[in-house]
Each structure stands twice: as C-alpha cells, then as structure tokens.
Fold this protein.
Amino acid sequence: MRVDLRSDTVTHPTPAMRQAMANAEVGDDVFGEDPTVNRLQERVAEMLGHEAALFTPTGTMANEIAIKVWTQPMDAILVDEESHILHYELAGPAVLSGVQMDTYPIPHGRIDPEAIRRRIRIADDHTPGTRLLCIENTHNRCGGTILPPEQMPVLRQIADSHGLRIHLDGARLFNASVALGVSPQVWTRYADSVMVAFSKGLCCPIGSALVGSRAFIQEAHRVRKLFGGGMRQVGVLAAACLVALDTMIDRLAEDHRRARRLAEAIAEMRGFRVDLETVQTNMVYVETVAPAPEVERRLAEHGVLCLALDPHRLRLVTHHDVDDAGIEHAIRAFRAVSDALGVH
Ligand SMILES: *Cc1c(COP(=O)(O)O)cnc(C)c1O
C-alpha cells in the first residue's frame, strides 16, 4: 500500500473535474474572452467579498503579483519568519519587486500584533518604508494553524494607522473556514488582496486566484502579463476550479479529522513528539529524536511518504486521495519505525 502524505498538492483531479475540463467553453483569456475563466473570477470575488479576481497559474505568482502592485522598488514589506513568501519563493520580492523583506516573529503559529507594530519602518533618506503587511492562513510552516479571526480588525487598525496594505496568502484559506465553520470573509474583508489556491486540498491540477478592488485587479492583470502568466484558452483549467468550489470545500473536514487521528496516534509513540495544539487543519508536524531524513527513508520502505522539512521535523499532510485505511496504514508504519529505531 502506498500512502502519500508529502503534500495536498499530490491530489489528482476528480472524474467530475475531468468531465468539466473536457466540456469547458473557452476563449482567449488575455482578451478577457474566456467565459469559464470569467465565471470563476466572478465567483471567487463574490465568495471572498471583493470587487474583482484574477486567475493565475500558481499561488506563488499571485503572491508576487500582489507584492509588485502594492510596492515600489526600495520599499519594505513585512512577512512572518516562517512564511511561504520568505522560505519558498526564491527571494521573489527582492528579484521581482526590488523590495526588502523584514520579518516578524510567529511562535507556535501565533501573531503578536505589537511585534508587527514595532517592526514597521518609516521611510527617510536611509530607510526603506514599510508598505505592505503579509499574513498567511492557514499557516504552512507553523503546522496548518489558523489565524484567529478576532486578530483581523487589530491588524487592519495597525495597517491603517501606518499606511500599509494587507495581503493575505490564503493558499489554504478554505481549510481555515471549514475548520472554524465560518465564512472566509471573516478574514478576507480585512485584507486589501487575497490569494487562494485550487491546486492544494481542492484537488485541481493547476490554479490560484488573486482578489481585490477593481483598480487593484486591473494593475494585477498587467503584472501577470509581465511575469509571463497571461494565458489563452485557459477555461479548460478554470472549469476544474469551478467544480472544486462546488464539491471540494466542505469535504476538507474529513482531511482535518484524519490529521487529528494520525497526530494523536503518533503522539503516543516513542521517538516522536507532536504538538497537538497546532494540529488544527490537515497538517501534522512530527518532531523526531532520530534524524528526520532517516525516519522519512524508513517510512518510505513501508510505502508511507512524507517530507523531512528540517533536520528533526517531518511534515504529514492529509488530503482527498488518502482514506481511513491509508491513515491506519501510516500509523502502523510509524509504530514499526518507532520500534525499529528503539529510541526513548
Ligand atoms: C503552496 C503555497 C503557496 C504557493 O502556491 P504554488 O501554487 O505552489 O505556487 C503559497 N503560500 C502557501 C502558504 C502555500 O502553501
């Protein structure tokens, strides 16, 4: 049995998506003439409570477009110490927008708004001025943790009092809204721009969207072209995203239940530690006494794939293509590795 827990990006498009892709009505999207893309953009903008949306090939491109639109070279942006933008986008803000990334701490996935306030820079002859505050929800490197909605008005107030925009990296925003049983708008209405991804737990082969005001999206459309992301009859991909919005959001609750089961079982085993408080959605981070790459290799011998992201930390992600039997198989594999390593 093979159980792939490396990421929710390994999910395959469902038969309903394949069908919708085959039948999609299309046009040239660079001219704004793809009806399926237009439908998707309107739908996402409405769901997230903003005026307009833009379909992008990747979440990374959407994040980098937002940063480019909101800044000028020599500005600074604030990202958290563990953010996707800082760790996994190849210094994109420096390369593509000519801005400096400043960081704020996020211990155990929690934001301290005062720590953000202290790091805002006022521009002068020597200092880049902070223009943009980036936040991430759910938080990938912090374990799929949820940004408490009650922090949003506080962050908005800080941003407004210093002339900052807020960009929300919501690659897994729907995981947060399903986990808390609230509308995604409890976060998005406080942000100036938001990225959501269809290619993670929602199972689409490709695609993210950026939302914001009409003026913001108009500029984002130009920057997408600059970054090489202007696409043509791309309704074939947007069609899958529309199916995802109809059918794949509510079921994220199953991924969360399975992550919980996995986390609680592994937390009991020798040689592993799991901070159960951070297991809030579809991710489980396991601290390993043995080197994580060694544990990763041994699990792979049992057909269980995960990622050693740090020297003593593994990441497991539950998703549509792992069922209850897969989770039980993964638990047995962890038990076997725990016994084999014989650590206390
Ligand atoms: C995956 C991810 C992205 C980027 O998405 P891609 O489509 O892989 O470029 C951005 N932010 C977070 C938090 C992510 O998990």
About this structure: Residues 324-341 form the longest helix (18 residues). The first strand starts at residue 3 and ends at 4. The radius of gyration is 20 Å.
